[in-house]
Amino acid sequence: MSDLSSLLPLFVIGAGTGVLATLLGVGGGIVIVPVLTQVCGFPPALAAGTSICCVFLNCLSGSVVYLRQRRVDVPLGLAFAAATLPGAGLGVWLVQHVQIATFDILFGALMAVVGVLMFGKRPGGACAGGGEPAPLLRGGRERTLTDAGGQTFAYRVSWALGTAVSAAVGVLAAFFGVGGGLIHVPFLHRVFGMAIHAATATSLFILTFTSLGSAAGQMALGQVRYDVVAAIGLGLVLGAQLGARMAPKTKPRVLVALVAVALAGVGVRMIYRGLAG
């Protein structure tokens, strides 16, 4: 797989994934892991390890742009990122002991459920001048975020709930090699009532730290294909730059629909493969 002819398609996949993943606030593992397991034939541990290294590159590249746009709630992001790190070690250990069929079913079920939930009614809330900050969260502390364009997002945060969810995300991110945005984006958006643009940006910022911790563990165990990381990662970095710049011009409902369709569709495909195997 290390010859140029086989790595070039992975670069193209990485570039397209970088655009989509950065728009959605996820790391890109929802595309990379199925490609590595179903097309390249990687076992779960190697797929997760290689994917999470690619995810880190994508998150880092996209987060730089989002920070410049001031769409990241940095204090919240740092707190929740710290909460993901202990679980990342557990996730890295667990994926070493799972069969590929079981991995596919679990991976697919997780994405399908979250994708279906995203089809639900979008909470009100987000911008200057309007709406309840978080109809799905009772109580919590109100926060606001004003981006570089002067748009203000209002939402409510439960630090205890967010920390608990983030701890679980750390396990899932390392186990599946997906970064964790498929949980954090709908959580920040639907539970806290954060506007989708701010939720995707903050999620990607959190994932930068989550994926770094997970990648370090996988590299220590030798569960990384560095030639594949280089090919997909270069594409991801370039695609993430474009995706982050496209995000402010993309309608929120379009982003929500993209998240839902991508997760549900790939999830069903993974479940089918796992059961058939």
In short:
This protein is mostly helical and 277 residues long. Helix content is 71%, strand content 4%.
Structural class: mainly alpha
Total DSSP E strands: 2
Number of domains: 1
How much helical structure, as a percent, in the residues? over 70%
Which residue ranges are poorly predicted, with pLDDT under 50 across at least 5 consecutive positions?
121-135
Q: Number of helical runs?
A: 10
Q: Which band does the percent of strand residues land in?
A: under 5%
Order of secondary-structure elements: HHHHHEEHHHHH
Strand order of the largest sheet: 1-2
N-C termini distance: 24 Å
Backbone CA Rg: 17 Å
Describe the structure.
The protein is mainly alpha-helical and about 280 residues long. Helices cover about 70% and strands about 5% of the residues. It has helices at about 5-25, 30-40, 45-70, 75-95, 100-120, 160-175, 180-190, 195-220, 225-245, 250-275; strands at about 140-145, 150-155. Helix 1 (about 5-25) runs parallel beside helix 9, helix 4 packs parallel to helix 6 (about 160-175) and helix 7 runs antiparallel to helix 8. The chain has one domain (about 5-275). The chain has a two-stranded antiparallel ribbon with strand order 1-2.
